Predict the structure.
Amino acid sequence: MVEQRERSLIILARIQAVIDGLIVLGVFSAYIWGHNLLDDIGAWLAVALIAAIGLVYFLTIHQVLGRRKLALSVLILTLVTATCVALLIATTDGLDSPYYSLWLLAIIAAGIFGTTETVVVLSATIAYYVYALIDEGFHAPYIRDHIIQLVITLAAAGLAEWVHSRGRRLLTTNNKLASLSGQLSEEQLKAQALMNNMAEGVMIVDANRQIQLFNHAAQQLTGWDESSAQHLNYNLVLQLHTVDDHEITETNDPFITIWNNNQPVSRDDLVMTTQAGHKITLNLSISPIADNNGGVTGAIALFRDISREKEIERQKDEFVSTASHEMRTPVAAIEGYISLATNPNVATVDDRAKKYLDKAHETIGHLGELFRDLLSVTKAEENSLTAKIEPVNVGQLLQSTVDDMQFTAQKKSLTLVLQTATTVGKAISPIYFVAASPERLREVVMNLIDNAIKYTTEGGIKVMMTGDAKEVTVSIIDTGSGIAAEDMPHLFQKFYRVDSTATRTIGGTGLGLYLCRRLIELFNGRIWVESKPGEGSSFNFSLPRLSDDEVKQLEQQVAATNNGGAAQPGGIVVPNAEGAVTGPAIAPKPIPMPIPSDHESTYKRYQIT
Ligand code: ADP
C-alpha cells in the first residue's frame, strides 16, 4: 500500500509537470502566432511564469527532495501547478473557462494527500463560485448553466475523498498486518529457540495423531530426525510399551486418554524403543491443545529419559527390601526374648531391670514396625502387594478393630467410639459389604485409628460408617492437632511427615498413610483427608459397595477356590491399582515369635506376606 501511494504521487508529479510544460508551450506559441486570445498579456505571462517555475521545480529540486520527502515535494509542485491553473481559469472566463477540467484534476489530486487538502481546494472552488454568482448578480440562467459544473466539482471532491479514505484504511490494515507478522515471526523465533534448547523432548501431535513438531532433544532421545518424524503417527516414532513389556492399548495409551478426557496426563511407567532399538524409560507429560470450543485438536508431549533414575530407585528398593527382610527376623526374636524376660511366669528380674527391659521392648517394637513398614512399601513399589479378596462386612470389621484399639486410646485418656447407625435413638446399623481382604482392610483402619490417637492429646476419636447403594464410606474423625492446608496434598506420599514440634516428638516413619492409599486403591477405592489446624482431622475412605447378589457370587467364588485349592492357593487375586494382575497370593510366612508377653501393647500393623 505504501508503494501504491508513492506510485500515485510520482504519477501525479509527472502529470503536473506535463500540464506545466503544456501551459508554457501553449502561452509561448500563442504569443509567437499573435493569437487574439492574448488580450491580457500580463496575466498570461504570469500563468506561463508560474507554470515554468513548476516545470523547473519538477526537473531540479523535485528530483532530489522527492527521493527523501516525496509527499512534501509533490505537495509543493501541486501548489505551484494549482496556482497556475487557478490563474489560467481566472484569465480565461472563470467558470466558463475551457481549462476548468484541469481544476477538477487538482481536486482529485488533493485527495491523494488527505482530507484537509481536499477540503482546502473544495472550499477555494466554492468560494470562487460564490464570488462568480455575486459578480453575475445571482442571474438565474447563469446559475442554471453552472449547476451541472458544480455537481461535477462536488463529485470530483467526493471521489478524491473516497480514494483517500480507502487508501488510508488499506494503509492502516497493511501497517497492522506488517506489525503483526513481525511480532509473529519474532515469537516464532523465540519459541523455536526455547524448544530447541530444552533438555526435554517436545513433540506436538495434531488431530490426525501425526507429529507436527519435534525438537532437538526429541530427536536425540528417539534417534529420529525431525524431517523423518514429521507427519508420522506418534506411535511409530515413540513405540511405547509398559515397563513389563506389554503393548500400549487403546485403554492405556496416554495420548488417547487426553483425547477422550481433555485432561493433562503424566506417566513415568512407559518404555520407549528408540530407532536404534534401545529401550528407555520415559517420564511423559502430555497436555491437550484445545480449540475455542474446548475440543481437543492436538497434544503437546514433553518427555525425558529416566532410565537411570529408575535403575537407582530399583537398586535402592531392592537394598531396603533385603535389609528389612533380613533384620525383621532378629528384631522379632529380640522382641520375643525381652517379652519372655519381663514375663514373671518365665523369668525373674528386679524392678529396675524390668523398667529398662520395658523401655527396650518399646523401642524394639518401633524398630520392628519400621522394618515391617519398609517391607510393605517396597512390596507396594514393586506392585506385589497381593490380597485375598472376599466379601467383608465393614460394620463388623470396624467393631472388632475399635474394640482392639480401645486399650491404646484409654492409655491416652481418649474416647474411641464407633458410629455405624444412621438414626440416632433407635439405632439400626446397616450392613454393608465390600470386596476386600479383611486383614489388609483392618490394617488400614488400625493405621488410621492409631494415627488419630497419636496426634490427639485430648477429646476423642469417632469412627463412622455411612453408605449408599454404590459406596461405603468410613471416616476416622479426631479432635487432634489438625493438618495445615499445604501439607494435606502430600500426606499420602511415601515418607511424608508434617514437620512440626508435635510430629518431631511423636515417632513415625511417614509410610502409614502411603500404604493405606495403596491398599485402598488395590480395592478400587479412594482415600482422602479433611482437616482444620487446631480443630482436628477426618481421614476417610470409600469402597464400592457389594449388592446382595454380588456378595453371594463372591462367596461362592471364594468357596470354589478354597475347595479347588491348587488352581489359586489362598483365594482370588485382585489386580493392583495400575490394572496389572499381581499373581497368586502367597500364604503368610510365620515370623518366629516366642510366647507373647502379658503387657504386649503394640499391635502388628502390617501382616507381611
Ligand atoms: P507417621 O504417622 O508414621 O509419621 P503417616 O503416613 O501415618 O506416618 O502420617 C503422615 C503424617 O501425617 C504424620 O507424620 C502426621 O504429621 C500426619 N497425620 C497423620 N494422621 C494424622 C492425624 N490424625 N492428625 C494429624 N496429623 C496426622
